[in-house]
Amino acid sequence: MAKSYEISSKRFKFNAVGQVLLAFLGVFGLLSLFSNSYKIAAPEAFRPAPTIGKVTMIYGNMSIYERTLETHKEHNRRLGYPLTVLRSPILNGIWNKLAILQSVLLRELEKPADQRLQWLFWFDGDTVLMNPDMPLETFLPPPELPNAHLLVSRDWNGLHSGVFFLRVHPWSVELLSAAIAYPVVKPNVGLIWFEQSAICNVLAENEYFARSTVYCPLRWFNAYMRHPNGIDINPDNPLHLQVHPGDLLVHFPGTPKANLTRTLTPYLEIAASHSRHWEVPLEETRYIEETKRFWADLRFGSSGRITSIPEPIDADGAEGI
């Protein structure tokens, strides 16, 4: 009897230990599962509300634009930018750019101030996002410059409206309204570059708009192509206009539609490869210091107008990230 009791006691102890062990393993498994789920969900669950929205338009049978759009979608996926794509024309031709921007602006301004986007980032369809790890916030003005509403770049033709930032603000509604109405209000004025020329004229003719416009270095967010192979530098173009590893995107203005696929494909292939050489984290680029210095050195002219002419980057500097 004593022996039987001893065996039963051992079995009881074994069962108790086994149950505790199984319970521990079960809890550990749940914690592990929760932990894994948490790691996956954390970036989305704890990502702050976006302050910048991206806007573009794509319509017609141009598959190359769908491919370029995928590079921007990867950027959005990593950094959480909402995207608006106009798929059906509202006005004629390129004027749809201003129409969809106006639409998004008004929609945002209808919201309570603390729920709005703060900026819109326009990009033309012929841009390839090269560094999806580059935050758009990098290029925005500091809080002490609340009247900087349009961030744009310029080249040898002057202002270039292919890629730019526009603050969500009534000023922007007025600017777009003036530009959209320009060919109607002044039908005798020739607009070589259509909506781009309209914006240029509105800025030139109205100090109210000009004094809130900042011309940023083109390479920040509107860099042009380098060599056709996407790898080598083009010795025939200024270095400070050519895209470099770590830069946000590359733009192909003026490329005929018939040549778009051939011209953009090498850059699309680089973007699709997600090469560490091109996808450089912000802290490893020159942009933290460069943008800080740019905004600190910004000068104001007559009537409070913001005036800034970026100095060309020398050959040595242009090669640096």
TrEMBL record:
Lineage, uppermost ranks: Eukaryota, Fungi, Dikarya, Ascomycota, Pezizomycotina
GO cellular component, one term: Golgi membrane
Keyword Nucleotide-binding: no
Any one Gene Ontology molecular-function term assigned to this protein's record: glycosyltransferase activity
Family named by the database record: Belongs to the glycosyltransferase 34 family.
Name the UniProt record assigns to this protein: Galactosyl transferase GMA12/MNN10 family protein
Lineage top rank: taxon: Eukaryota
Pfam families with a match to the protein in the record: Glyco_transf_34
Record field: transmembrane: 12-34
Organism of provenance: Aspergillus pseudoviridinutans
Classification via Gene3D superfamilies: Spore Coat Polysaccharide Biosynthesis Protein SpsA, Chain A (3.90.550.10)
Keywords: Glycosyltransferase, Membrane, Transferase, Transmembrane, Transmembrane helix
UniProt xrefs under PANTHER family: ALPHA-1,6-MANNOSYLTRANSFERASE MNN11-RELATED, GLYCOSYLTRANSFERASE FAMILY 34 PROTEIN
Annotated InterPro entries: Glyco_trans_34, Nucleotide-diphossugar_trans
GO BP, sorted A to Z: protein N-linked glycosylation
